[in-house]
Design goal:
This protein has 112 residues and is mainly beta. The protein is built from no helices and 9 strands.
Length: 112
């Protein structure tokens, strides 16, 4: 969950009636438009369409210690993100307001 430009929150939802804020990630004044989570090589990642900051990949396998593993400046504003798997490879489809669709392979999140 993102709270405008301040941070992205990691919320524990084991009990949906009592969500718990576990941690947060500083957004450095970027507006996060969309967040998806995906599993790659038995680790969980949050993929952020982070506005002017572009695409961010954050390992969230340990919610108490989220780790920014990579970011890509898309040259505009990253507005939306989704994921597709084709022939065993994982791709992020990123909508950039100024530069259109970006297709980014993320099989190795530290080096997309």
């Amino acid at each position: 969950m993102s709270d405008y430009a301040a941070s992205t929150k990691i919320i524990e939802m084991n009990d949906p009636l009592n969500p718990k804020n576990v941690n947060s990630i500083n957004n450095n004044n970027a507006f996060t438009y969309r967040i998806i989570t995906i599993e790659i090589r038995e680790k969980m990642y949050a993929i952020l369409a982070d506005g002017a900051a572009g695409l961010k990949i954050i390992e969230v396998s340990n919610p108490l210690n989220p780790l920014l593993v990579s970011s890509i400046n898309t040259g505009g504003r990253a507005m939306d993100v989704s994921m597709v798997e084709i022939r065993g490879k994982i791709y992020v489809l990123l909508a950039d307001r100024e530069n259109g669709l970006k297709i980014i392979e993320v099989n190795y999140p530290y080096n997309p």
